[in-house]
Every structure is written in structure tokens, then in C-alpha cells.
Amino acid sequence: EMFCFFDMYRLFNIEPDVMNACIIETMNRHHVHSYHNWYHAVSTMHGSFLLLTLAGADEFLNDRDIFAILFGALVHDVEHTGNNNDFEVKNNTSLAQKYSRSVLESHSVSETVSMLENPNLDVLKNVNDEDRGYIMNFMEEIILATDVAHHGETTESLRNLVLSQHDDTDSIKDPFFNKEDLESRLLLGRAITHAADISNPVHAKFEVAKDWCCRVSVEFSLQAMNEKKNGLPVTPYMDGLETGVDIAKMQINFMLFVVNPFFKVLAQVLPRAVCLAENAIVNTDCYREILATHLLTEEKNDKSDS
Q1: Which of 75, 68, 73 is nearest to 28 (CA)?
Q2: CA dist 111 → 14, 19, 75 (Å)
Q3: Which of 115, 139, 208, 218 could serve as 72's disulfide partner, Cβ 3.0–4.6 Å?
Q4: CB distance 138 to 65 below 8 Å
Q5: Backbone angles phi, psi at 172, to 5 degrees
Q6: Distance between CA atoms of 185 and 187, rounded to whole angstroms?
Q7: CA pair distance 110, 148, nearest whole angstrom
Q8: To the nearest 10°, the Cα dihedral for 222, 227, 228, 232?
């Protein structure tokens, strides 16, 4: 339905049976992890769709960009191992030996290219070489940008964009993106995909956000356990997530240093996405309430013991 909304089947002469087969294959190439699974893939695609539509980002993109963003979001974590890139590198896994940068993201791109080499799965088989090359290159760029190592770069690029749009009166010139400029569209594509990828903490319902947080915490704990087992340095924020309080502490740091600053600047360049920045603040406060309740309980218990 998301592809239909933008009339992608007609624009790129996509055969419905091939698209269905490709989606099923993509689903099957997602492993059974608590977080990096098929549901996360669909969630990221839906988040991208909402930014394109409700936040109005589609106004600054062409049809090829939009297809690359939607399809790229769906495949961005294909064959994900449930660990992060640092784990792959520290363990010198076969994937780390194969890819010199953004190991997991590069692998997802490679697996997607391989999947589309099958005519029965190739949703782009009826487009010309120029369009196909453009879409694949755009999609690779935005998938690689989901590597958390590029978070700071993407955030800073958006901040610089905001600063560049200020004039002498300190007012902001609008819009921030130029549909005629490829670099502008690529930055927007990277921002959309990265935002959708880390959008679970800014869900309008805190219980949903907390559920996703618990899911990723399971993966973190498993990685920390394997790091200890393999005699490797343990990733600090992944270790000791044994209680809801531990998880809340971890998530508050993630919100304050990663999520909140990013969605704040995203709301500046896409003003209709301001609700996400507002949700980030609300959900951060919800985690703080969990800690406050825990501390109050501990204080009461201490008084009872004395």
C-alpha cells in the first residue's frame, strides 16, 4: 500500500507478483532476533513513509528517490546478525573480513543486490539502466547512512543546513531542501532513513517505545555475554541490563545524547515532524519517572529496615 500511495507500480512498471515475491524473500532474509527482525524492517519503512507524507518530505524528492527510500528502508537490515559492527570487527568475523566499512549495512546492500539479480525477485527489471543505476546508488547511500557511526555526521549536516539558511535578520529562509539538487536530496534521504531507523524511542505511545527498548536490550545483553565469552572488551552500555531500572538508565543516555538532538534538528528542517521531537522529550521524562519511582521505593525500604 505504501508503494501504491506513490503510484510506484505504474511509474516503474513493477509486476505485482514480482514485488510480492521480493517482499516475502526479504522477510525470510531477516533472522529471528528480538529487535533487528522483520517487524523492525516494516517499522522503518512505515516511519519513512510517514516522514515522506505527513512531514512533507516528498515535496523535495523525485519519484526515484522516494522508491529508493521506501525499498531501502525495508531491506536496510537484511541478514542482520543481531550484533553491532564493532562486535563483527572485534571478532574478525567473515563479514568483517569481507567489508572494510559499515560491515552490517554493506552486507545488507550486497544481499539486496544479489536478491535483485533473480528475475523472479527483481522489482526493477522493467526500468531502464539509468533509472536502475540511480535508484540502486541512492539506496546504497541511505542504507550505509544507517550505520550509527554516521549519526554525528548526519546530525551535523542538518545543523549546518539550518545555519546556512539564516540571513542577517536571523530569520530562516524556507525551504531547506532543493529538489533540483542531488546532494540536497541525498541528505534528506539519509536523514529520513536514519530517523525512521531510530524512531522507536519517539513513538507517541510510551508503552510501545518501551517495548522496543526492551527488545534491543535483549540483543545488547546477548552481545555483552558473547563478548565476555570470547574474551573481548565488553561494550559498557550493553552490559548489566538486568532490570527495568538498568534499561531506563541506558535509554535516558541514548535519548539525551543521540535521539533528542537528532529529532530536534530534524524538526527544524522538516517542521511538520516537530511532534517526534516533542515525543522524544515526553518519553525521556517517562524513563526519568521510572528511575524516580525506583529511588523513592528504595528510600522507603531503607526507612522500613531502619
Answers
A1: 75
A2: 20, 16, 9
A3: 139
A4: yes
A5: -105, 130
A6: 5
A7: 19
A8: -170
